[in-house]
Amino acid sequence: MKIDVILGLQWGDEGKGKIVDYLATQYDIVARFQGGPNAGHTLKFDGKKYVLHTVPSGIFRPNLMNLIGNGVVIDPITLKKEIQNLEAANVNYHDRLLVAKKAHLILPTHRYLDAASEASKGKDKIGSTLKGIGPTYMDKTGRNGLRVGDIFHESFHSRYEALKEKHLKLAKIYGDIEFDLKAEEEAWFESLATLRSLKAVDGEWYINNALKSGKKILAEGAQGSMLDIDYGTYPFVTSSNTITAGVCTGLGVAPHKIGEVIGITKAYCTRVGGGPFPTELTGDVGEKLRKEGMEFGATTGRPRRCGWIDLPQLKYTIMLNGVTQLVITKIDILNIFETIQAGTQYLINGEQTDQLPYDVCVEEIKPVWEPIKGWHSNLNDVSSFEELPTEAKEFIQFVERHLEVPVTMISNGPERKSLIVKELEAVS
Ligand code: GDP
Ligand code: IMO
Ligand code: MG
After folding, report:
1. Is 256 one of the catalytic residues?
2. Beta-carbon neighbour count of residue 170 at 10 Å?
3. Predicted confidence band at 423 (pLDDT cuts at 50, 70, 90)?
4. Of 128, 204, 264, 347, which is most buried, counting CB atoms within 10 Å of its CB?
């Protein structure tokens, strides 16, 4: 068997949680492969809304297993809160939620360093979610980190203290910030009991044995490809590989085991935090998109920056990920527009190109717009591609033509049931 992948093709918040939750019933295991509680994946069903940060989005579907893979960084405090929410919703998670022993832990002082480092950057700040992601991955690659498997060892406490002391020394290079370390540590150690109560596994063996025995696995990405540490809009990125390659390192699977790669894009584009965004709309239209799309962060509540769909950007991330099928979400947000625009090329120094330049942060990029007639009607009751208004079909075909990847699903509302499945048989 091969492992299928779902990931975001823009700057995050494309609707990954909703699509994973929808597709999960076709799989035996859903596994998160990178990122941490900087993610906020929203699921809506039966009139209720749930936001997951660390727990895979397959957890609400009965019978399937959910793995927090080794590429994920875990804050036990956030995980405990998520688990309390699952308990409140009567979700039977205990035997269905596994944690990879090699996943790294976010310490309170990682969050402290994240906040102090951001504060010291002033106007150049990245706009981090301040969840400690950057410092934790720094300790991972710097070979100093603590992992889930370590919490069961006698030396854990002393290793924690040593790492904390190192962090406090490091923090002196930044200015002081408000942070109640004592209270945060207390909560952190308390929450370790919840983490200890979950089944810790050798994730790479678990996944490979499952594939061998014919189990169907879906890998769930966090953030978006434009936030990838290597290929995103550096330095305005996160600290992990958010692209398909991250599935191999984040779960321990070989490249030839990758099956379908399902890339998700909104019908427009958003970004939260700092950094370049070529098709951003700062005026009334951007405001309209934000209002209609309720574009406020699921993790931080911050307003998201909004703009039209950016086709060169999507071509780039489709290439990086080897996307085999596309999902377009939030098409209903475009209902209100008489004309929709798509950025089809970039104008850089008077030259047209569809290739992102080396330094997206420095170059002045102007999108070349192509107008598309809007459908200007409500899509609430549409449940098949055929029922879509002609203009909406044309919009989708326009995107497919430019990106040369088939669109297999179109999401027309936040609820689980609001999904138009075009070619589900394409999913392996
Ligand atoms: P994720 O991080 O990729 O899982 O996405 P988020 O949960 O951060 O943000 C997506 C937001 O859009 C959530 O509030 C979803 O409930 C909502 N959403 C997802 N798909 C649709 C859709 O097709 N239409 C509308 N109106 N909202 C959607
Ligand atoms: P999901 O999985 C959108 C952004 C932050 C910031 C940058 C670095 O919900 O799509 P970090 O906390 O990682 O140091 O922040 O990345 N960011 C996200 N934006 N969705 C996310 O996750 C994000 N996770 C991080 O806003 O600009
Ligand atoms: Mg999100």
Report:
1. no
2. 16
3. low
4. 264
Task: Ligand 1 pocket test: pick from 13, 51, 407, 419 the residue with the most ligand atoms within 8 Å of its Cβ.
Answer: 13
In the structure, what pLDDT confidence band is assigned to residue 300 with cuts at 50, 70 and 90?
A: confident
Nearest to 220 by CA among 420, 408, 409, 59: 59
Residue 233 Cα to ligand 2 middle (Å): 12
Asked if 107 and 188 count as a contact pair (C-beta separation under 8 A), the reply is yes
251 class by beta-carbon count within 10 Å (0-12 exposed, 13-18 middle, 19+ buried):
buried
* 11, 72, 111, 227: residue to mutate for ligand 2 pocket, most atoms within 8 A of CB: 227
Which atom from ligand 1 is nearest to the alpha carbon of 413?
24
Against a cut of 0.90, is the pTM above it?
yes
Mark whether 41 is an active-site residue.
yes
The encoded tokens of residue 243 equal 């692209």
Nearest to 140 by CA among 245, 46, 281, 35: 35
